[in-house]
Specification:
Rossmann fold; globular; 3 domains; 17 strands; seven-stranded parallel β-sheet; six-stranded parallel β-sheet; alpha/beta; Arc Repressor Mutant, subunit A; 681 residues; binds adenosine-5'-triphosphate; binds magnesium ion
Amino acid sequence: METDEISEELQNIEFEIHDVEEQIRELIEKQEKLYERRSELQVLLETCPIDVKDGSAPTNVQAEDWSRSFDWDSQAEDIRFNVFGISSYRPNQREIINAVMSGRDVLVIMAAGGGKSLCYQLPAILRQGIALVVSPLLSLIQDQVMGLVASGIPARMLTSTTSKEDEKFIYKALEKGEEDLKLLYVTPEKVSKSKRFMSKLEKCHHAGRLSLISIDEAHCCSQWGHDFRPDYKNLSILKTQFPNVPVVALTATATMKVQNDLIEMLHIPKCVKFVSTVNRPNLFYMVREKSSVGKIVVDEIAKYIKESYPNKESGIVYCFSRKECEQVASELCERGISADYYHADMDVNAREKVHMRCYTFTFMQVAFGMGINKPDVRFVIHHSLSKSMETYYQESGRAGRDGLPSECLLFFRSADMPRQSSMVFHENSGLQNLYDIVQYCQSKRQCRRSAFFRHFAEPLQECNGMCDNCAFSSEIKEVDASGHSILLISLVREMQEKDQRVTMLQLVDRVKNKQKQLDFELKREEMEQLVVQLILDRVLKEEFQHTAYATNSYVTVGPRANQVLQGKKIIKMDVTSTSKDVDGYRKSSKQGVTSGLEFKLDELRKELASHDKGIFPHSVLSGQQISSISAHLPNSIEEAKHPNNEVLNEEESSEIRPPRKKLKKANKQVIMVDSSNDESD
Ligand SMILES: Nc1ncnc2c1ncn2[C@@H]1O[C@H](COP(=O)(O)OP(=O)(O)OP(=O)(O)O)[C@@H](O)[C@H]1O
Ligand SMILES: [Mg+2]
């Protein structure tokens, strides 16, 4: 054998060994994930005999019966109704209150807006002494305290913004118990950093006046959660120092791993756990393609708000950065939408102003940022994607906390991914968390709701057409993009060999001109989509490089690239041929404009939906159904009477969803509608 041949074979073997090692690593990773999911499902099976009839299950049923009658029942009822103005409990609230009142540690997992606050605020009033509430954000604390004080409940906060005078009042209340104080809100920093505060708290406890400890947004304790706060880690000190005081940990979002983690972190191994479903049946989830031109995105947001919410209902727009918040707010104002921005680091007075307007006037239409505690937020728009499914669930969950129908709209563009990834790659599972939400955004078929169930390891529930993928159908084609993928990998490899770096957008630019040799060409956005998909599939990989000003994300070859190059892995991708849109029928209309019939059907569905505040117009009749009916519009009364040739055929008519209560009526009326284009009536 020639030396050259030996070297070549050796090199090939090296490649193959590398390849096999990668595959083994992948399989081990997969095995770990499967183990984890298996144990999640086993726990789920053991702990929750599932009953999803009323949409409020699943619920963890504990051995104790927390719904039986207790001594404090009538007193609790009285406070619930007369202090909080709440006429009946929501699922699990009464049971949780009973467990806390019985002195147990409690872990509460309840959807955003589910009513967690009552679960500790009511016992705080009922029990003797002062309740300590730990909450991560100043803005959330301000909201809560303002709300409580407005209801006549003595609540205070001790934060960096507290005046000397207030501080004196609080310390006196803790130490001597003479002042009127029932709930004291603090940030976790106070617990971990202020010795003075802890010594006063100790005195309060010693005198038997520390009634309970509530840890809101408890997922912040776990580094596996989406919003880990190092100061939350030190909260274990509370249970150690005050072992007989009940701890109530509450969060809207916690995977099984996070739940177990926070039980351990907070030292509450014997806690009673109440897990309610993550489902928010009143929220309509949708994702829209985001234009690369910033101005167009704002135009679209403005149009959406004006058309969907002409009565100036309130909403929140989440943006990537503070600067973007301020900019988008001012651009929306220019388009006639009353918008203001709001973020946690704003000066307290400015934030207070936004708060006050938010509560007092309905013209406060759009608020930017986090922590707005309004129950009647009708829409939450994400100008940029969140960093994880959990964060998105939490943020979008600010919509419709009053239980009325509300919408969650996320604008997604592939190029937003590297922007986020360079921020989160150093976090624990940061990249994987981001890739999960990117997968959610990229999906053109999967029910959005089911993605949440899967993520939080909960059995699937009906979506009832309350997400874009379930409500509207668009033509989706699956194409074989293996050729394009090979081209991409080769390009990246070539550049890597020359020690050059390439960003996602640069890569797409380069490959655009080279794809002419292939069977078909992908549009720019489709090529971006493919690169993202390849990164999620680990065929390509993101790598990060720090510069003096920022961290940049570059695309490199991933562990599965060889499988694609060798033809062992076929890359399929979904391409949309018609756009999916809330008002999709406008785009798919034959004439390219809305016909009179379509317009009238649209008006009709809005009218029917308005009779019943619990449903959206598109739940009465989807845009696609409107198009379908219009397409079969008879030309004359005669034709309508004998619709032999022109009636909906079996297949098409079956596209119309099973009639709901209202839909039957709508269908009848649809046939009778005047079809002329003049809209004089
Ligand atoms: N039993 C009830 N009946 C009617 N309204 C309720 C009930 N319980 C709570 N609410 C209301 O629901 C809204 C949301 O409650 P709360 O702020 O406690 O939600 P949460 O579970 O803490 O949500 P988040 O995770 O977003 O903080 C509030 O306006 C509250 O007054
Ligand atoms: Mg809350």
